[in-house]
Amino acid sequence: MTGNILSIGQVLLIPNKSNGNKEEPILEEEYDIYDVQKGDSLWKIARDNNISVPELIKINNLKDLTLQINQKLLVPKTSKDYSIYIVQKGDTLWSIAKKFNMEVSELKRINNIENNLLSVGQELIINEL
Fold it and tell me: Which domains does the chain have, with CATH numbers?
């Protein structure tokens, strides 16, 4: 900021207290701004940005977990070293991991999957090798 005047809709970055008394500023160049859309949830936004829900809450210092349309959230900047795979009928985590030369544990980790259930049409992040 160059002055003391704020504008409506301006996004401010606030230091994040994550380590006791040590302040860690959230650096703007590390994050993109995401506008909440109809149908979004913290889980969906976290999954789509390859982070956990608690991390999304922490980054945005959310006290109220109810999202509002057009609400602005900070999300980590994405690198384009991945692609999206859409789950087909008969797919399993093992078959998808094998197809893309990945470990099942890695596939689950990068997609924030806690169980072994998949749904037809589900989008999965796949590492490009």
Answer: 16-76 (3.10.350.10), 82-127 (3.10.350.10)
